[in-house]
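Page 42, continued from yesterday. The earlier attempt failed because a stray header line got pasted into the input along with the sequence. Redoing it now with the clean sequence only.
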Amino acid sequence: MPLAQEIFDLPKDATIKKLSEIKKEVTAQKQKEIDAFLLTSKSNDYLSADIITEALSIMSPEVEIYHTPIPDDILEKIIQDINKKYYLISSEDHYIIEKEKKNHSLLQANLKMSTRSFLKISLSPCKR
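This time it went through. Structure tokens are written below.
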């Protein structure tokens, strides 16, 4: 019998008890995943422990731990820490990292030219 049907068929008190047990099991499993992840990411050159903790705390419970979303502003900061001339442009399904090329004068105006598609990263949907 599927778990959902089993829970549905239980009396109210037993349903609450069963759901509470499931919640404890799931929470413990997720905490183990998070602890293991934090052990491997202590020496991260780009993300502080606070940023990692914040990203983990706002992620959806069904998302795999290694698919934790990182806010675009953090990604842009990482890219600019690598090189101040790089900029991040994001859309729904990809990122483009642009590199500032150089300045040109045109009719007494200073124009910044950039090289598009310096690096294009396509995003794939997370496994759930």
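Notes: The beta strands are 86-90, 94-106, 109-122.
Reminder to self: strip header lines before submitting.
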